[in-house]
Amino acid sequence: MTRWLVTGAAGMLGRDLTALLAAGGEQVTGLSRGDLDITDAQAAATAVAGHQPDVVVNCAAWTAVDDAEAREDAALAVNGRAVGGLAAACRDAGAILVQVSTDYVFDGTATSPYPENHPPSPRTAYGRTKLAGEHAALAIHPSGSYIVRTAWLYGAHGNSFVRTVLTRARAGTALTVVDDQHGQPTWTADVARQIRALVTAGAPAGIYHATSSGQTSWYGLAREVVGLFSAERSLVTPTSTAAYRRPAPRPAYSVLGHAAWTAAGLAPIGHWRDRLARAFPSMLAGPDDAPSVI
Fold it and tell me: Structure pTM?
């Protein structure tokens, strides 16, 4: 039986991952921010040494993209320096580290999917801090670290764009959504399964892109959600990124390639539209009523 330690376990991905592992009979300990502040390197080292996990999955992160622009050092403490501490603790304990990262490490100007080995070029403080975490993990614990980049997440147990659209659809309220940003809507339950598959298969250490296949825009995603709810898709109207001024620029193109899965003999996540339909019943249940086991 593999022993797992999940940080950031109260978040959307953390909850799905701990539920998946527990349902599979694994020994899993989930630590929320209240249980462990990963920026305290000594506390993190003590937690790893005390729980003696085979695998540590770091789901803890500073995810407030706009706030990071004004507070980059605070974001770096969580997304960068703390990852170095976890990597060192895992290396010393002989444990695997799975570091969850983001599409924001790229500049978003591509026109074809970013392969795993594409040179990063973040345009935001959030992206820079998450890239610092990647570098720390791979430098400190290169043979035992997986970097799992994901994007456009939604899940049963947290706030997300899909949740917001569903709320508006229930109310019959119109919404205007950007149609010039493209990416891959991804269910956190699928990311959890990919993380488990990496470890179970003993896949090579390195970088993997855990996003759904296919691509769409935020507008296209909103229309799909409204359609699944059996509401009028005319509730959703398109607009451009230029209509919204935000501190951190949003990538126009966040589509990630999945060649590393194939190279490791593992299947990538299926098409975003199919996975959204599969996830939809749990989304309809609401964050408080949705099942914890997937």
Answer: 0.96
